Amino acid sequence: MRKKIDGRWIIIFLACLYAAISAHSINARGWPRGWAATRVPAMEPPMVDMRTVLSGVDRYRAGVPMAEIQSPPRQAGGPPLLAYPVTWMVFSYVGLHEKDTEACVAVLAAACALATLWFIGPLTPGAGILYALVLLSPSLMLAVERGNADLLIFLLVLIGCVLLAQAPEWAGAAGLALILAAAVLKLYPIAAFLAALRRRRGWVLVVACGLLFAVFLIVDREDLVRVSQVAPRTTFLSFGSRMGFDRVARSVAFMASSALTLAALSVAYFASRRRPALPLDAGLYGISFWAGASVFLLCFAIGNNFAYRFSFLVLAMPQLLLWAPSRLSPRLALGLFACSVWTTTTPRLSPFSALLNWILFVIVATLLFRALPMLSLKPFQRTAIYSK
Questions:
Q1: How far apart are CA 43 and CA 80, in angstroms?
Q2: Helices (H), 62-97
Q3: Helix (H) or strand (E) segment spanning residue 238
């Protein structure tokens, strides 16, 4: 009997081909136009998000007040605006500088790629093609082009899920500590705390870390308010509940998007009550599904997010693939996800992608609600995603 090809080799092959095409195009045409070969909307300077963070670290180390780093005069040639909390200045103590931008992005991107390949485990060729379609999409590769800090957040949440899936108590505490660290850097990863409920007495860990997070919000509230005032809220290259409300007043957009989100969650909840509970993988895939789906739902609900935050649904993909052979909803979720990561970064398809993303939001919420009753924890195990 012929041995099946591990679909991860397909991902690696296509990733190498993608890298070669991108590198050649960038060398020949420059940074912004070079990325156009792979449909990634690029901007100057290269890896601008990481460059902004490390520029802020340099200035903080030089004694510039944090308030000035977060809200400098927006003048041509002036310093970039840092829309990140003061917690990011922890990197001022590890010797990083703006000149290290390219190296930092390369290390983070490689670490995310290797961790993801290990995380997804053995695949069928078809599943490998699906993963490659998602991982090499313009939405996820936008994180590499921008050098966005969400690469680090994704890595912290993924490692946190791996630790939460281990049996020892110290591993669960360490996993939740990593997710807490991600939350104090970017706030939205707090939704991944839900994954800890898969552990025995996990609610104790959740309550403890929730209290620590609440203390952080109180202590750093002035800094967080300042960040919220300067953080971009754009519908360009974005997904979220406020898509389509960019031409109305902020208060109207908030009320309208909140009402739609509540209605969508209500539909998902009542639809889930009419269906039987879904069996979750006993180990990593069940935990990562809760974490990834929860982060995606929170990001979508709070407003607009740049498309690279779709990456957190990658954490839910193994469980979706385990469900897919016998259930329609997971197959729809996977198909919509694969379409969304390609259409969201195409401005002329914005209305179409917004509709796809709302449907994806409802389906993922329904699946999460159906999986919530499954709170038991069994010994850690890996499940190969092979069709029977």
A1: 14
A2: 66-70
A3: strand 238-240
Give 4-8 contacts, CB < 8 A, sequence gap 24+: 4/124, 4/125, 4/386, 5/125, 6/122, 6/123, 6/128, 7/122, 7/123, 7/124, 7/125, 7/126, 7/127, 7/128, 7/129, 7/131, 8/117, 8/120, 8/122, 8/123, 8/128
φ/ψ (deg, to 5) at 306: -60, 150
**For residue 239, which phi and psi values (nearest 5 degrees)?**
-135, 160
How many angstroms separate the Cα of 235 from the Cα of each of 60, 127, 238, 322?
31, 31, 5, 33
Q: What is the pLDDT of residues 190-240, one digit of tens each?
A: 999 988 887 877 788 888 888 999 999 999 988 888 888 777 777 788 999
Q: Which of 195, 365, 351 is nearest to 286 (CA)?
A: 195
Helices 150-164 and 138-146 pack at an angle, to 10 degrees, of 110
- Does residue 306 sit in helix, strand or coil? strand
Q: Please give the backbone phi and psi of residue 21, each rounded to the nearest 5 degrees, phi first.
A: -65, -45
Dump pLDDT digits (tens) for 26-47: 999 999 999 998 999 999 889 9
Task: Give the pLDDT confidence of 100-144 residue by residue, as tens digits.
Answer: 999 999 999 999 999 999 999 999 999 999 999 999 999 999 999
Q: Using CA atoms, how far apart are residues 280 and 302, in angstroms rounded to an integer?
A: 27
Residue 183: band (very low, low, confident or very high) from pLDDT cuts 50, 70, 90: very high
The overall longest dimension of the chain from CA atoms, in Å, is 68
Chain centroid, CA 290 distance in Å: 13
Summarised one tens digit per residue, pLDDT across range 322-332 is 999 989 999 99
Q: What is the mean pLDDT of residues 15-31?
A: 94
pTM of the predicted protein model:
0.92
Instruction: Specify the DSSP class assigned to residue 374.
Output: -
> Which amino acid is it at 63?
G
Token pair, residue 372, equals 């919530």
Calpha distance 132→385 (Å, rounded) = 15
Q: What is the dihedral of CA 110, 116, 118, 121, to 10 degrees?
A: -150
b/e per residue 64-90 (b: at least 16 CB within 10 A): eebeebbebeeeeeebbbbbbbbbbbe
